[in-house]
Queue: 2 jobs
Job 1
Amino acid sequence: MQLISVISLVATVANAVSLQVGTPATAPDTLACTYLVNFADGVDTLSSIESHFAQFPDVTYSIRTHVSNQYANFASFQIHGTCYESQVSSIASSISYSTVRSRKAPKPIKFGALTSRDSTVYSEDIHSITGVNEVREKYGAFGRGIQAAIVDTGIYYLHPALGGGFGPGFKVAGGYDLVGDNYYSGNTTTVPDPDPFDNCSAESHGTHVAGIIAGNATDITVPGFVPAVQFTGVAPQATLYAYRIFGCDADSTGTDVIAAGLYLAAGDGADVINLSVGGGPTFAEDPDQIAAATISAAGHLLFQAAGNDGGSGPYSVGSTSPGSFAVASFDNVEIPSDASLILDGAAYPITFSISNSIFTDGETFDILVNDIMANDTQSLTDGCSLASINNSTSTVGKALVFRYGSGCGTSKRCGNAAAVGATACIIYNLLPTGMTGNVLIPGFEITTEAAAVILSDAKADITPSAVFSSASSSVFISTAGTVSAFSSVGLSPDLLLKPDVGGIGGQVYSTISPHAAESQGLSIPYAIYSGTSMATPYTLGVAALILELRGSIGFEGVRAFLKNNAQQTKIYGTDLINSPAVQGAGLVNAYTAVTANTLVLPSSISLNDTANIKNSYTITIYNNYAVDVVYSLSVNNAATANPYIHGDDFTQDYYSTTYTDDSHPTIQFSASTVAIPAKASADITVSFTPPTPTYDDLYPIYGGYINVANNQDNITASVPFAGVAGSWADKSIFSVDSASLYANFGELAADYTPYGIFGVVPNSVSTGLYADVTFTPLVVNQTVDVSSGAAILAPIAATTRKAQIILNYLGNDGVFIDAGFSSNSAIVDVLYYSPSAGTFYEGGPFTGEWQRNAFSDDQSIVAPYIFVFEGNAWDINNNLWGLNPIFVPNGLYNIQFWATKNFGDPNNPDNYQVTTSPQFLIVGGATPITTTSPTSSYSTSTVGTTSHPTTSVEVGTTAEVSTTEDIGTTSDIATESLTATTKASATASLGSSTATSGTSVTTSGSGSTATSGGTSTTSSGSTVTSGSAGTGTTSSLSIATSGSGTYTAPTVGSTTGYIATYSAPNAGSASTSSSGSSATYAAPTAVTSTTTTIPVNLYNGAQSAVGVAFGLIVAAVFMI
């Protein structure tokens, strides 16, 4: 019944530690010290939190949001200043808690301005390819009696097309503002109120969504609100409720706020709920995704935008919850236009430059294509430098045409055009991106079709007739009814078949607020936007029609009628049926969805990968006809998506992903025909044999549609299926070998290099630490001066539940511990350079869920960041928020890049892929804190002789890494607290001791004995516990304390290939250690001690204790 009811829980009692759910607090997009806590039914959440924090008088916090209804009982809050996760996990009567993540606001793609006309044009062509017009004509359905909730930026409900008011009796009948006007990424304090009014956001996103669902812009005479074209939403008689989760800036919100909006909408009785929020691929384990599953299971249908990251290629879909409809976008039929480019007599729509759009009607253009081969070569830098400008002829007075690419923005391209005397700047691109342009020159973006005409003429040495027209017209869209280029592509990171279905989202005309119109330079509050944010309310509107005519049939019923009856479409310009990973079940068809008498469940089949595919699947065919029906089954194989290239581990993008008519599965039915009595059902068993790819590293996405035809009418039900050929768990997460990434990103890194050192192209873009900020490859035993910074690249090819960069101290002494760390491993602190923003950000600890990268920045998915390591690291065993990183001491180190494998459990160290750098020597770091100078002879080390910047291994595959399996296995650690000794002072000097690998340690002086693998009791009563030690690798933990902090006792084993001199932390006689089975070292001083109870850190991640190379022990005080 509550949010947490959809996941498995252990019983909890007051004051017990509650379960942590979802992303760890250190994930890159989490809000600092911000948590959502779930409580049992009937618990007063605010009182419980208040009572809890009364125990911590120095802690200040503020409530963000809270919900208590039949679906959830939770509150979220932000702790101000230093915070610890233990302060959250111990709240009485709490069931579980989650960190709060930031979700980006959706960013629609905007098109040209339209003016109000004295026109009676009434265009419903948008509804002609989705069956909506037929449903209206034959059944008179307009969404009457359906309650639709919009969780978004709020609504400008004074718009006459949206009813002109707010409250009972109006079209917008209710809702709530969960955040207030001033909420944005820089101010996450919420100020809720009962009014979801929005006349301050620049795009008026929620108002545009509202118009698509239920707008009625017919016969409007109110001055300033007369549309260019009259239109209606899909379900104009539906009642709207608005739940505002963005402030006026509308740049981001929190997963707690989204969850609250969803629960409030469900609690208010919404039949259908729209959520168009960005964010890119993720896992369905955060509060908003759990909320989606909860309310859907209760019958409230949630529609979520799949995302606008189609430019990034496969695995970019953002809505992955099984409990929601992830909606893809299809292009509209036509759009009204006040501006077009007339090429050889045909009109093509244009998108004006935001900076300069001054053209006159009838103006002619002398077209000059800057690089006629730019589209063929997929150039990213066409026009990005003056040197690249076409100099074959005079550019003065020309309209220069450029291909857009990530090498630079439209401002730079158009600025270069102005600099060479051009009079117009024209941009084309396969993806509609919108255009900033440059104030120095007027410009516009043209469609793919217009670009094809211009390029064809240019290659034939023909100058096309090109004229600007401001005449009002309706422009046909040649890609109508096919998937929009920007629409995000599946599958989900766990290979769930997403998106589910598609609606019209490419170039949709709808309502916006007067403020948004003014901010965009529009004369009337209507705009043409594109995005899955538009396709989602369109699809929701179709669901409203289904509910109106069929009544309450539950989530799975509506999903099946939508998906069984969707239209399978082809890839534009080909005869190939598009992949279900791209279009889901296809484009919605309202008419067949409300008239079909056959239902097939499940409505889609996720086949996973070859290693995990089931032996067979069962589909159930329901016959709702009044007569017996004979059904026949067949298969339509869809195009196979090829997101990888042999020998290249990085995910390809929109341009480089190929779709081919091969790699199809073999499919067998238990029966290809079946007779089903009236009002009865029958089961059919389906077996799939996946295709075998040519190479193991290709991972093609295959798929298609099971068609179920009947002998009564021509309505065929279909079920999409998709899977991956190969073992997805073996797919590399961090990219270490990608020529495509180097070509599409690495060669541009010269413009991105930090510290103002421009013009440097890296020799490699492989995951790893580089010797400096100019990307000098790191070799064994190289010196890295952290005072000057060193570049780190960590391009991620596949979204992972957890990734982290670990710094391992390799010195056989206590220097790292004395610097303030609890073990010899720490989480790297990074600055990161954002190419798109052109600036540095404090990245903090690199740990948590990480989203896959792309060649260049998309709407949510981004190009690899360039990280800079400046010698700071975070203690691996502490809650990281509210603390500060520690400046590491000089010494010998390596860096490891840990990433959870696909399907992996981030709490299991065996489920990680690890990439390890060569060992290197840090200089410019902190001076080691020790009473005797360290004398380790690093230069003679021969460990890690590989010449490649990094080597990849999987946890458990080598003796070096496999020692992490022993973490947490001793009885000391596998408890809720650890008792260790705390040294009160250091006065007496002990003598030297001799250690023989795997046997014993005997100290002289004041007299104490330690046996490796047992306990050592000193004369003053201190105890050091160490696990068993073996020759060559020491697979245990040593735990002790020094001063007020935690101290890791070194255990000496065979260290073949490593030669060093070791100094005791608290002085004593000089000592040396040598390669082999024995060594001497100065024993630490032991005097009067006290016993301290050290709480176990519940931080997720046994993988944190790494770097047990060369037979050294790395102790970690935490639980898995």
Note: The chain has 16 helices and 59 strands.
Job 2
Amino acid sequence: FSAFGSSSVFSSGYAPGYAKLNKRGGAGGWSPLDSDHYQWLQVNLGSRKQVTAVATQGRYSSSDWTTRYRLLYSDTGRNWKPYHQDGNIWAFTGNSNTESVVRHDLQHAVVAQYLRIIPLDWSEEGRIGLRIEIYGCSYWADVMNFDGQGVISYRFKMKKMKILKDVITLKFKTAESEGVIVHGEGQQGDYITLELRRGRLVLQINLGSNQHGSILGHTLVTSGSLLDDHHWHTVVIERYRRNVNFTLDQHTQHFRTNGEFDHLDLDYELSFGGMPYSGKPVSGDRRNFKGCMESINYNGDNITDLVRRKKLDTSGFRNLTFSCADSHTFAVFFNATSFLQLPGRREHSTVSVGFQFRTWNPSGLLIFSSLADGMLEISLNAGKVAAHVSVGQHPTSRVDVASGVGLNDGEWHDVHFLAKENFVMLTIDGDEASVVRANTPIHITTGGTYHFGGYFLRTQASPSQRSFQGCMQLIQVDDQPADLTAVEQGILGAFENVSLDMCAIVDRCMPNHCEHGGNCTQTWDQFSCSCDGTGYTGATCHTSVYEQSCEAYKHLGRASDVYWIDPDGSGPLDPFRVICNMTEENVWTTVMNNLPAQTPVTGSSRERRTVLQLNYSATTGQMTAVTGNAEYCEQRVAYACRMSRLLNTPDGTPYTWWVGRGGEKHFYWGGSSHGIQKCACGIERNCTDPKYHCNCDADQKQWREDSGLLVYKDHLPVSQVAVGDTNRPGSEAKLTVGPLRCQGDRSYWNAASFNTPSSYLHFSTFQGETSADISFYFKTSAPYGVFLENLGNTDFIRLELKSPTMISFSFDVGNGPEELAVRSPAPLNDDQWHRVSAERNVKEAVLKLDQQYRQVQPAPAQGHTRLELYSQLYVGAAGGQRGFLGCIRSLKMNGVTLDLEERAAVTPGVKPGCSGHCTSFGMYCRNGGKCVEKYNGYACDCSGTAYEGAFCTKDVGGFFEAGTLVKYSLTPEPVPVAASHAVDRTEVSEWQGPDTNLTQEELVFSFSTSSTPSILVYVSSKTHDYMAIVLQLNGTLQLRYDLGGLSEPFAIDLDQRNLANGQPHSVNISRADRDVRVQLDHYPPVSYTLPQASDVQFNLVKALFLGKVYETGQIDPVLIQRYNTPGFVGCLSRVQFNSIAPLKAALRSRVSAPVSHQGKLVESNCGASPLTIPPMSAATDPWHLEGGAGFPFNEERVIPDGVNRNSAIIGGIIAVVIFTILCTLVFLIRYMFRHKGTYHTNEAKAGESSDSPDTAIIGTEPNFTETIDESKKEWFI
């Protein structure tokens, strides 16, 4: 009965002694006098016990029970510590009636003699009522008190110890923020030190460094914070070789020590509680530990037991005791509604107050006092302590002083303030450098009352801040310590909403929930993460902002460029930059190394090889991720030699080898297979000397070379090459190792098709306790289905298609089910790929659909944060859920791709892979390109277009000199059957018959030139019919049709502007019967009609000419006389006539087509128009790399009426003069370089230097500038 205590008792029958579980004595339990938040029920366990569970009941046969409570514990009945769970001061769920027992097993056991329960909420029908039971077991440990002077020396049996394995365990508690706990060192420089620094635990280990400094073994790891709270903390250090587990209060860090050594070499002894002398590894004043330790063990030896039995040296202790001294401090804990009122001297001329505080908030009220004629305020502002004194209304009777910086760091800081007549002094942490003095003519008369931590009265003199969140201790008023015990008993002062004899500060940044190097900052209630510069985003910097591979960028419609990729998403690998090359067939990822091509190697021998180290633009782990996900990798190696043997084939020991990814030596060379000691010529049997398997092994005086591709990707990349035969006279070698090139991304296309509603795949339990992310693509025609699910006892996580337009993400971490839902404006069961990503962390839950639609739900401020799952992870339906029908691919969970295809191959109702990619990605094939299905993705077939590239967006064009022409036969000669396979069937598909008549045609091209007149395009026939586009002498464009029935050809002047201005211009002409539609550049289309007398059939088309006409038969003499000589000089690009791309066929000799050309034709995109595809702006492009070429965007400003027109006229005149000068320079430069076989484009850079509106628009187009810059010069070879 006497073991129970309480804050108050309603009456004798409600005494705390009756508060035993299931007992009905007295009034059936404990109830306090007042039901408010100041009440508590306390149990004295008689000695320290290990407590594992707590159970509660309401008061018997009543309406009194407690619905929510907190648990405090203590060794002494003072200095209470609240029970923490999931990073918060935990609030336990209580009862909802009088008889039911609610038991809570503690997530981590606590050791204490005293327990105190603080009711937070209670029955609405009654009052606080409580019966309790405490569960646990006995606890005993040897305790030692360290006075800051004595050190325990644990002497080794040998003078020098070479230790491979260490296990150190101990518990400590202290009120000091500094002190060495464990230290040992050796003469070779090895050491181990465990110490407190600023209330944090620091472990330093050095297993050895060499004299040259190339191996540095020093390793430092920090754990915990606020450890100067005079509560017990448990430390476990486990080391095996370089692997270390460092555990503090259930939080374990795993790390490897720096350097290359495994043994800890210590001399003589290991010290506990301090350093017996100044050690070598650390310098400066290091304090000994002051506080208590218990259960000290080192490698199986009980140190505290050895001390008790006087087996160890304790001569340094003045008074060694085996008990723990009580703390002499009395802490006060303030929240946003708290204050503590203390009395002081009234009508006195001096103010002297002092205290210590700790907080995370940058601002708050520390002290406020009303003076007889003024006020005193001491507050925290932006991490500084500021004191403000005002007396009377006169401005000269005000004093403001401030000191300190960053005082909201959670550590204890000491403040002392003194004000008397004409003098004010503020001191922080007793530091003389912090002292701020002010000599101001003021006269102070104290009011006699001081408010600490809050002031909520509405008085004439009010503080700038109202409250403070944090802790205070060692409060002094008028140089006298405040008797806070008397305050707690109601004898002295007053308080509201404060917790006495307790500091409930929580470090929300320890452990740090900000991932990937995110910076954690906190206030009293919450923490936040700054992810700047990390490459990650989200509330905890968990989600990568980059795509996983070049393959993923391609399927966002991205062109070849340098990109950041993050293969493991939210995993531990950092993002890195690679070169992505998007070709029509494949996507190549290139990682560069630092070895220059043709690196000379001399002076090496078999006994002393020259080792060339290759460093890549990515780490080993990053490279492994690239090669592991790739379908194919290659790396070119080349060894140029003169009297330098390579592999010493056929049977000798190799002179040269290379080292791959796993650190193993390899004795095969490029072009050979792994394990076969040959070069490429040995595999192909074409070596210079057939007796050897490498050209260099013939040891000839002439320069030879062995080169080829290394393609076994498990060995790549090459990290070292050791060369061993260049030390003889005349012996030379040059080594080239190319970049690593990989294609494909198996994880991106790893897919499974679910064919029945009951089919599913199962995987091991998902581990995502505090941070979890899931991402995948799906496509379906079904209206609903469960994507995946994982269950625990009560916890679960589920992603589901709930309706044709809604995705649901639901989970439970112990606080009750939560659900996020995202709706799409369009149906999701459209059999196209959609991307889903979900994330849950301690701050929030996020669900995203197609990177556009997003819902965020903050996590509760108090509650469970750990997701505990036990069942298998089911992908698809399980447990009676509605099954998913369709495809899922690229399923990633916490950065790890699940191998759906492997599991689907052995699972009924599920098939590996998924078809139909073109339904989602076909839109990326532009300009008439056709989407072609592949097993892993798709490709764009550009063969029937005038374009090429991964998305058929790259113009194919050429530069024509005078006299150059291209002829494409539209009625090709019959070819033999064997040869017909080499012909591009797409390009000749419309011209199968010898006599082709057209009633409609479409012609598209772009050009740039400064010369007139000329023929741009001419389509001939076997009759008089023809079609021609000519550039007239004045630079205007004319379309000429002669289809018969007219005495003269029908001519259309397309525009009155001079188009021979060196700028690119695009032309689009289409005809259907008599209707002709023409679009020039960006202007609206214009329609024309052939005369009624004209025929509408283009009879017997024969050939298409570009640049000039060289044809037999009937030709319009006007064309020959006016336009055909000397021919077109300039650039033509993306020429397409119906499905024919004649210029592309002429420039791409790899396909056989009925095309020929005369004169010099050099590929160039100088005639390309930039207006086809607008580029993505850098502002909306998260993958845009800074530091690249920048292209200005000039926004045209509209000048309203009324502005100064003279300025505009003067500006126009100046622009004309400048333009004339530029044109003259352009002409001179063109004339000079034409004779050198070089072609220059000299386009205007912006609208100010243009001579027409369309060129002004083109000049402000960033993509246009880039197009021109890429081919300013073309060399004719």
Note: Residues 678 and 902 are 35 Å apart (CA to CA).
